[in-house]
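Q: Given only this backbone (103 positions), what sequence would you predict?
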């Protein structure tokens, strides 16, 4: 792995004839690095105990519509956590409540 100083030192030692190839390789590396920086860094939710999921993520695990899940949460039928205007679901709690529904 190179740090910025090592790259500068290496560039100074490259013969002038090879500089266009070096510049092309650095441009390609920069483009790859920029794409990686722009990629979302969050991993897909796993539903681990204690993990809070948004309605879309929880609904995907249950194979239901997010709108239906949010309506059930509004009616108090599904355990959820309100964080300001956001509604989040603990997968473990939701699955437990689905196994033993209240009348």
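A: Predicted residues:
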């Amino acid at each position: 792995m190179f740090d910025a100083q090592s790259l500068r030192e290496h560039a100074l030692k490259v013969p002038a004839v090879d500089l266009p190839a070096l510049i092309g390789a650095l441009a390609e590396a920069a483009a790859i690095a920029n794409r990686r920086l722009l990629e979302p860094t969050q991993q897909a939710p796993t539903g681990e105990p204690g993990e809070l999921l948004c309605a879309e993520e929880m609904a995907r695990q249950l194979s239901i519509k997010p709108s239906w899940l949010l309506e059930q949460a509004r009616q108090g039928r599904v355990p959820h956590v309100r964080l300001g205007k956001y509604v989040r679901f603990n997968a473990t709690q939701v699955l437990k409540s689905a196994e033993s529904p209240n009348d």
